[in-house]
Predict the structure of tRNA (guanine-N(1)-)-methyltransferase.
Amino acid sequence: MRFDIITVLPGLLESPFAHSILQRAQKKGLCEIVVHNLRDYADNKHKSVDDYPYGGGSGMVMQVAPFAACIEKLQAERHYDEIIFMTPDGETLNQSIANHLSTKGNMIILCGHYKGIDQRIRDIYVTRELSIGDYVLSGGELPAAVLVDAVVRLVPGVLSDETSALSDSFQGGLLDAPVYTRPADWRGHKVPDVLLSGNEAAINQWRDEQAIARTKDRRPDLLDE
């Protein structure tokens, strides 16, 4: 699995991919993450990649040519299953989408800035548009990092316990049950007896009941779905 991320601020993505699970996944050769500076594909001496919007209005718009040049260079080198644009008006990322993308091979992720990117890039090249929530950030770099993290952790071999991802919240359409660890009694706050019983059937039933109750309380919309 390879991710090619196109951005005007590559430095913003250095830390998220250099630590923890994403770092280990790359060292194991289970994924490759390559960040491309969009300004390297600018066709002017100032390396600017934005301009004023046609029709007037506030803000600046990212130009067609730099994105197209970078995308086409990458496509000439390998096949891509998806070209994803991170945008507030895209489809909201969820666990089902992450599961689906984890079965893919190579993906390009476009990070917008300013007022957005020229619509022609979205019309011609982009195969999927994703959002991480109903709010606006300064750019698409943090959403891109969120997407990569959500997908890569599902790739077999990335997590030391491969069953862990399968029991996460949303995998079964529910939120996860409460979890506990040692000590069993902390300042009078005790772990539920069933978790200490060693009765696997009873523990699984308790977890199922707790997951349903928590989902009903916090995200009843998931039960409707």
About this structure: Residues 200-218 form the longest helix (19 residues). The beta strands are 2-7, 32-37, 50-51, 61-62, 82-92, 106-111, 128-131, 185-186, 189-190.
